Amino acid sequence: MDQAFSAAGLRYLAPEIALLLVAALSMFVHLFFRKRGQRLAGYATLAGFALTAVILALTRTSRGEIFSGSLTVDPFSLYFKWIFLVSGALAVFLSFRFFNIEKSEPGEIYYLLPLTLIGMMASASSVDLISSYVAFELFAIPSYVLAGIFKKERRSAEAGIKYFFLGTLSSGIMLLGMALVFGLSGETRYAAIAQSLAGANSPIALTGMILFFVGLFFKAAFVPFHMWAPDVYEGAPTPLVVFLSTAPKAAVFAILIRLMVTVFGRFEVQWSLVFQVLALLTMFWGNIAALIQKNIKRLMAYSSIAHAGYIAIGLAAWGEPARAAVLFYLAVYVVMNAAAFGMILLRRKNGTFGEEVEDMRGLAGTSPLAAACLLVLLLSLTGIPPTAGFMGKYFLFAAAIEKKMYILAAAGALNSVISLFYYFRIGRAMFMEEPSPGPAASYRRPAGVETFLALAALVLLLWGILPALLADAAAASVLAK
Prior knowledge:
This protein is an all-alpha fold.
């Protein structure tokens, strides 16, 4: 490999290099500053994320593939890198409030998060089987550790173990699909594989594609590969759930979309049918299961499963509008889901946080601002105007109608109505019920969380009223066929 060419390619990976330095700095601070080393490591990580954002804004797209065709930096990958970075920054910011109450702050999370982001960013840029698998594992393995970071707490340990075993299973299935694809084509680069598959044995190629996709479906929490999500989201620390429920899922969709466009384009009819079935199963199961949940974390876990089903509508209706709609909805989903799990940090209960729906009772009386912001969030999650959630679903359903997938669009609309019932159980508790008697759930104005919720509500309203602010960026980042 030409060394000058490799050195030139490093400038396109400046965000990843910056995150590696952030992880090293955070680790150094955590290990060598005995007093408040964990919190100082968190501040260092948050400052490093801000610097990485500046570097990412200055990063330009590569003219083609770099590092012998293993990576590329295009508008598509840059769009997802912003999503990952924002998710990581939100998790760190909310961690400060969480660990102030929990009185136990594992500093390891502040350098595991940057390392996880490096893998996600590499996965969005990967155009080679080997680099894709390495990047996938680079963000998957730290995710298992983050889920079970409270080793002595039963729920957290259980979450980490379940996430690890099922994640390892998904990696093995995906690797088997990769092996079949490589065996047929003899190539690892996506573009070369696509050319080889044009004349390959269709049943074997289709089997390889399905196995490859199934491994990714676990991480996306599509039904019936969703069984890990409610337990992991309930057991993991809340700020880390903000990250684990958004960024890894976005990374999986980035890999899926690139595979659909560059490798398995000849099988569009087949994978469109797969995504139609997945969308129906995932939407209905996620929304129906959420109806009976009393724990907010489990409720939002099933809600996130349902939202994966909405995104699958766009993957099934894979035209130009659908590609832009998926990118639009992914960005909106990150904001909505982060705020939804962030609401748990508003209420304290028995030395920790109130995670039950009833713990939100009377919130409008103690904090009208937080309640109003959460109302905007609930409207957006349901898909009611004038919020970004409404516009996102509108774009997805319109793309399905354009492809004459009327049943899929109608099912999406019906599921939005179903979701109204469980989202507004939280709304009813906040606005129409009196606080629980006694000191079971208390409220002490967490300014940082309230500020975050206010900004999230503002963004959701802004993208809902002026959707072009995000839609134009999504359209410009679409991965062309």
